[in-house]
Amino acid sequence: KLPTLAVVGATGAVGTVMLEILSTRQNVWGEIRLIASARSAGKLLTVRGEQVPVVALSAEAFDGVDVAMFDVPDEVSAEWGPVAAARGAVVVDNSGAFRMDTDVPLVVPEVNPAAARQRPRGIIANPNCTTLSMIVAMGALHAEYGLTKLVVASYQAASGAGQAGIDTLRDQLTKVSSTPNLGTAPGDLRRAVGDLGPFPAPLALNVVPWAGSLKDAGWSSEELKVRNESRKILGLPDLKVSATCVRVPVITTHSLVVHATFEREITADQARAVLRDAPGIVLCDDPANGEFPTPNDVVGTDPTWVGRIRQSMDEPNELELFVCGDNLRKGAALNTAQIAELIAAELTVG
Ligand code: 2RA
């Protein structure tokens, strides 16, 4: 019998992409049960070409479930993940609730698939979308050249802040396109756009050097996630990591500029050779012909796209590169589905 999958948070921005992904990947699931808040119960959603009714989140909703994927706020995962695990489901959680729990593996199937087998709490965590948008590329390079330091700047899309982020950016773009000359005087966007939604400053025609909440010494939660999660996934607890997270007026697909330091000398051609063969990576690096990834060319695709690879002019063991990854797919739903498929294979083999 094929395993039963539950999708918890089926109606959100990531949940919607998840249903699309489950409809197009190889079908390894028997029943797919859709679970959401009581407010969405009874709603019909399409998955694998069939209309499936949403059931309300409850302990009983997990009866008979083998794998439960969660895409809900941290506090909902913190409460309900252990409930699903106690009912016998392996939980794959995309919130921040368990990522740094030492008894919960943080898994990227291209980088550390074996970690998924050690799950004393019955819970596996999915990394944050910003970490995920670069970590497949960094994992491949680390395996060959030994990473010692990462300095990154993110260019994060509005959908990282969920449907509210998408709606806010679209609404602001409508407003700014109907008012001439906006973006030319200090503060004119703030006055024109009104509601800032989940962002601390206007996003249309702007960039906002902030994502997440304020933590110690001026760092944002998002910047600390990039640091802590990269260390855990790569198994490098002392990796030096500095991140600056910036929101840009893109609907979906996060980009990052990465400055990476390795144990050994690495040329741009050597890095390209590694990335060309790495699973989950598309190398797009031919600036002479105008080829480099942009979020708009990458959105809706599964891989991590890498371009603009250069060896540092000052240090032969340092590289600059530009990566793009769809934050709703590899950054969230796809990686969650890939982890769930690892568990499905484990359960099917027995
Ligand atoms: C963001 N990384 O882009 C967050 C969402 N998980 O806001």
Automatic annotation (TrEMBL):
SMART domains: Semialdhyde_dh. CDD domains: ASADH_C_bac_euk_like (cd18131), VcASADH2_like_N (cd02316). Its EC number is 1.2.1.11. Signal peptide: none annotated. The keyword DNA-binding does not apply. Phosphate binds at R99. Substrate binds at Q156, R247. Gene3D superfamilies: Dihydrodipicolinate Reductase, domain 2, NAD(P)-binding Rossmann-like Domain. GO terms for molecular function: aspartate-semialdehyde dehydrogenase activity; NAD binding; NADP binding; protein dimerization activity. NADP(+) binds at T11, G12, A13, V14, R39, S40, S159, G160, N327. GO terms for biological process: 'de novo' L-methionine biosynthetic process; diaminopimelate biosynthetic process; isoleucine biosynthetic process; lysine biosynthetic process via diaminopimelate; threonine biosynthetic process. Pathway: Amino-acid biosynthesis; L-lysine biosynthesis via DAP pathway; (S)-tetrahydrodipicolinate from L-aspartate: step 2/4; Amino-acid biosynthesis; L-methionine biosynthesis via de novo pathway; L-homoserine from L-aspartate: step 2/3; Amino-acid biosynthesis; L-threonine biosynthesis; L-threonine from L-aspartate: step 2/5. The active site is at C129, H254. Residues 4-119 form the Semialdehyde dehydrogenase NAD-binding domain. SUPFAM superfamilies: Glyceraldehyde-3-phosphate dehydrogenase-like, C-terminal domain, NAD(P)-binding Rossmann-fold domains. Coiled coil: none annotated. It catalyses: L-aspartate 4-semialdehyde + phosphate + NADP(+) = 4-phospho-L-aspartate + NADPH + H(+). Belongs to the aspartate-semialdehyde dehydrogenase family. This is Aspartate-semialdehyde dehydrogenase.
